[in-house]
Design a protein that fits this description.
It is an enzyme of class 6 (ligase). Residues 739-833 form the FDX-ACB domain. Its cofactor is Mg(2+). Belongs to the phenylalanyl-tRNA synthetase beta subunit family. Type 1 subfamily. The protein has 834 residues and is of the alpha+beta class. 26% of the residues lie in helices and 27% in strands. The chain is built from 22 helices and 42 strands. The strands form 12 sheets. A 7-stranded mixed beta sheet has the order 28-31-32-38-37-36-35, with helices on both faces. Strands 3, 4, 5, 6, 11 and 12 form a 6-stranded antiparallel beta sheet that branches. The protein has a 5-stranded mixed beta sheet with strand order 14-17-20-21-22. The longest helix has 19 residues, at 810-828.
Length: 834
Amino acid sequence: MRVPLSWLREYVDLPATETGRDVQAKLISVGLEVETVEQLGDGLKGPLVVGKVLTIEELEGFKKPIRFCTVDVGQANGTGEPQEIVCGARNFAVGDKVVVVLPGAVLPGGFAIAARKTYGKTSHGMICSSDELGMGDDGTKGIIVLPPEHEVGTDAIELLQLVDEVLDIAVTPDRGYALSIRGVARETATAYGLPLSDPALLDVPGPNAFGYPVQVSDPLGCDRFTARTVTGLDPEARSPLWLTRRLQKAGMRPISLAVDITNYVMLELGQPLHAYDRSRVQGPIGVRRASQGEKLTTLDGVKRTLDAEDLVITDDRGPIGLAGVMGGANTEIDDTEGTTTEVVVEAAHFDALSISRTARRHKLASEASKRFERGVDPQAASAAAQRTVDLLVLLAGGTADAGVTEVIAPSAPHTITIPANHPDKVAGVDYGRETVVRRLQQVGCDVYGQDELIVTVPSWRPDLTDPNDLAEEVIRLEGYENLPSTLPKPPAGRGLTDRQRLHRRVGRALAGAGYVEAPNYPFVGEHVFDQFGLAADDPNRKVVKLVNPLSDEEPALRTTLLPGLLGALRRNDGRGSHDLALFETGLVFHPREELKIAVRLPVDRRPTDEEIASLTEALPLQPRHAAVVLTGAREQAGWWGKGRPSDWADAVESARVLAREAGTELIVRGGQYGPWHPGRCAELAVVLRGVEQVIGYAGELHPGVLKTLGLPARTSAMELDLDVLESASSGVPKGPKISTFPVATQDVALVVDASVPHADVEASLREGAGELLESIRLFDVYENAAQLGEGKKSLAYALRFRAADRTLTVDEASAARDAAVSLAAERVGAVLRG
């Protein structure tokens, strides 16, 4: 919200010495986020005056049209003689009043004006456009043409209000009242302790039976609708300079008088309005929910298909506007034809949630919807309609119709009961009852009672719903900076949990293995599960959906880390980084079978264990996962060698890295799941309480998935459940005991069927070798049908034997090796090669 300081001063009598920076500091102290203070006209220096074009000579022989003009600037040039100026614009004619900057002046940006020779003529100054004066968008792309009533030689700096300060306020969703000059003025008056001249305090006639007919069929969606009619408008009337300049300073573009007035009143009072061309409205105005599939062409020229949840404004033909968002083109006031002489002014109050969903559904954010979804003062509708009518009568020569329509759904004021010392307990400061009552009254509340206060919330503060909201108002007005700094006292002896330690160790281990951490947002769209090829009954398809998602394309919480990681890989690959190894550790979310409502925790004490447990049970299941994705070179080529590309084995090895950090024995075997290539996918499992449990998958992704997602060929990935991995561990990993006795190494090469997994052979060797086996490593895989036979392969292992208390003899090492080979022969049909 852009707030010109000159406009703000109309409603709060600020000291003349107060600057925009001073007001910014005061508003920040009461909780408004004033981001910047823009200095309009900074560095501007006259003479800058109103001039009248006397003659125009078209100069020939140049690449673009050039005009040599003489302009009457009165005595501003010191001689009274016409000023000779060269200008390239063509949107003015002889007799027009324009803005002229004379030699010696300085325009915004440090642009000094001097007489100079150009196009064969000497130009003594410049005829100005709005851009050159820093005025903002005025709807034209040429010279400023002023209304004829302004006198030649008048100071244009004052006339155009070029020097001002504008406060740019970032309005948070709970402070919709600050999207108006009225709301900001109220906060300013409170901050300075000054009275407020409320622009909404107008004499408004009561409703009668002569107003324009209105039918509201959805009182929950529209609880107040005011309609006023103004006739006899001058279709040639244009917005005065003071009105257009205020709109420009507030960041809005002047359009036409009727539209400018509704925008002006919306900025002033915070109440969105709409003006209909009465001659184009057929029958009564109605408010209802749209029929599914109804069509409406909005003011932006887009034909929209309506949803059954959309609230619409109608006449006898059907929808003529998207309520609270944008009007329809079929009742638009068209000033290009100059035929609108009667208007119907709408000032209504719509349900915030309905407007927010409609605006998001149609991707149509507007100034009106931005205010309605944050909360608009329903009591201001009548005053806003009256203010609009008064300005139409004053500026367009219209006549206010005697009819006044008001459709109001009955509602009671919102009251909150709060202990007088509740803000004291929340803040840890002794404010006292008098301070609490005074501050709540400054907000606009009516307060009654002694120890127990009954607070009636003002209509413009729908965000105040419970005692803690009222406590926040007291605290912010008393000043957050005045709250004492109290350091919490954590109980002794509580460090990181085992889960947190594992999380940190995993991150360090993956980083040490060459992976780069790439955290992602925890949101997904359900279409990604189709892209991953998940089965219809896959548990990962059951998602927790957000009521108010940041993006309609990703309305659910993730059940897997891969969509975010693969998206990061795709973006980096598209930007030229082709050798990538990324990882992420984070929570995934699964809905509970039974939905529970979360309890509201107290703020005046620590929640009990039962309350925390109840809150936890209302949350989704949130296991912590770890995932990696790889593509491109795993080892770079150089003078040291050729390097090698990443493949499925690297993804599997990353899982083993995590298992080693957790001190868990990881079972790796062939598997098939979702996005992984069925022939290059490893299933990862652990033994938990005596039962094998699958915790994830690793390997190369399916080519079809890679094509669908736009990923490089041979991309690999791994994902596993860290929480289950931790549960299967034996605790914090212990350092190995290093024996002082030498190792005995025995190599064996076993011939097995090509379909036998290496993991099964290794498991048989490990079990058969017994407790003397220190490690086992596969160092060669050989396939040759001529030597081994069809469908056979040779697996060569290095077995390391060592005893803790003695040096092993050759016979002992050989016996252990033979026992291992014997069990492998029994289990998987292995035959000792050679």
